[in-house]
Amino acid sequence: MDPQHFISSGIIELYMAGIASEEEVRELEAAMAQFPAVAAEVEAYRRNMEEYIRLQGRTPEADIKTSLFNKINNEPNLQEGEPVPDQHLQQPKVVSMQETKSLSWKWLATAAAVLLVGSLVLNYVFFNRYKEFREYKDKYQSLLVSQNSILSKSNLYKTRLEQMQESMEIIQDPKVLKVPMPGTKAFPEALATVFWNPQSQEVYLKVNKLPEPTTDKQYQLWAIVDGKPVDMGVFEMGDTASLLQKMKVTGKAQMFAVTLEKKGGALQPTMEQMYVAGKIPG
Amino acid sequence: MGATLTYTEVELISGLLARDEKIFTYLYDHYSPALYGVALKVVGEEAAAGDVLQEVFVKIWRNIDRYDASKGRLFTWMLNITRNTAIDSLRSKNHKLEQRVQDVNSVALMYEPQLAVHLSVDHLGLTKVIEKLQKDQRIIIDMAYFKGHTQEEIARSLEIPLGTVKTRMRNAIIQLRTLLKQL
């Protein structure tokens, strides 16, 4: 194919427009290398196309230029003219590798910074939680102490309540005889009561009013059975005195009396120290 | 165009390689209208075209050392960068959405006589070419040359047979050359 034929074949027009087939492009480029006239003609076409572009040129807004030059002057990597990956330019592989390298380094630095900040935040949060926890621990311990004291008090009350209930049951039992023991002539203010169940033979004592004895002495209850005093045991004073105190058992008695004896009780009652005495009613 | 240049192409390239801002300013002042026109034709609206133009000049500044003078003139190289950057921008998802709305207006507007004038080209010259080049000839050239459409895409878009695309393209370019020679 001679150069003139190429020029008039119409391939150059398609080549210029960018729609020539791969085969046409190969043919034309081979002809351009072979015939300077073809190369010159292609270049003439190219200049025409570029002239067509220039005809349609439009002056861009001035701020685009300002912004462009700001960008170039203010970005350090732009000042140094660092290449960026661009698929339209040559050597994209090398550039993208460099970019990946520096990117991954930057990425690591960013990640490290983010992790550090995250760690600091968590430190702060957990330290605050720890402080709160310590406060709660103190509170918890004081609550535990007060709960224990409430519990022991509650147990105390429970015991008291049970004792009272027990006392009530005894007092309310119709089989139980109530034996009031008023004060003797020597101790007219004194008063005590015996609750006696003749069937079960159980005997309970309630101190209504007796003076607190010295530490070496104790009150002792006696049952008078057929004219003879029978020991029914010593009893406590103080807090215990407010409750019914279980004494020794007896199935027979005509009378009950309390004397003040040496600690632990006596074999025979000291008649001068008789505080209270009462007959079985009926 | 050559007459208006005060730098030769070799001077321009070596200045750019040396990151000479004076040369870069000159380059911008002389080539931005043409490149902006290309970007505008492809993306169809001024804000996006402005972004493309800026991106193009940043690429030129960064990558001038990859320009190979043996493969073509500087302007051809810059033109390719502009076309590709603009087409990429057009293809980016966000832009596509806006573009659908824009297309209707911008296609019509683009074929109105342009008001802005390039430094070296007078308005009359442009008008002369525009008037004499038939509208369908301009459209077919622009679709291929600016927007990079394939023959198939052009055939589908203009609703003409595939074989007709080549013939029309050839005639359009021949007509364009004839008109340009008359300027």
Question: Would you kindly provide a written description of the structure presented here, covering whatever features stand out?
Answer:
The complex is a heterodimer of chains A (282) and B (183). Chain A has 282 residues and is α+β, with helices and mostly antiparallel strands. Chain A folds into 3 domains: 3-58, no CATH class; 82-172; 177-279. Chain A contains 7 helices and 8 strands, in the order αααααααββββββββ. Chain A has a 4-stranded antiparallel beta sheet, covered by helices on one side. In chain A, strands 5-4-7-8 form a 4-stranded antiparallel beta sheet, with no helix packed on it. In chain A, strand 2 (191-197) and strand 3 (202-209) form a beta hairpin. In chain A, helix 1 packs parallel to helix 4 (36-55) and helix 3 crosses helix 4. Chain A is rod-shaped. The N and C termini of chain A lie far apart (159 Å). Chain B has 2 domains: 1-120, Rna Polymerase Sigma Factor, Chain: A (Orthogonal Bundle), CATH 1.10.1740.10; 122-183, Arc Repressor Mutant, subunit A (Orthogonal Bundle), CATH 1.10.10. In chain B, helix 3 crosses helix 4, helix 7 (135-146) crosses helix 9 and helix 8 crosses helix 9. Chain B has helices at residues 9-17, 21-43, 46-63, 74-91, 93-110, 123-132, 135-146, 151-158, 162-182. Helix content of chain B is 75%, strand content 0%. Chain B is globular. At the A-B interface, helix 2, helix 4 and helix 5 of A face helix 2, helix 3, helix 4, helix 6 and helix 7 of B.
List keywords for this structure.
heterodimer, A: 282 residues, alpha+beta, 4-stranded antiparallel beta sheet, 7 helices, B: Arc Repressor Mutant, subunit A, 2 domains, globular, sigma factor antagonist activity (chain A)
Q: CATH top level of the largest domain in chain B?
A: Mainly Alpha
- Rounded Rg of chain A: 60 Å
Characterize the biggest β-sheet of chain B. Answer: none
* Major sheet attributes of chain A: 4 strands, antiparallel
Mean pLDDT of chain A comes to 84
**Could you spell the SSE succession of chain B in H and E letters?**
HHHHHHHHH
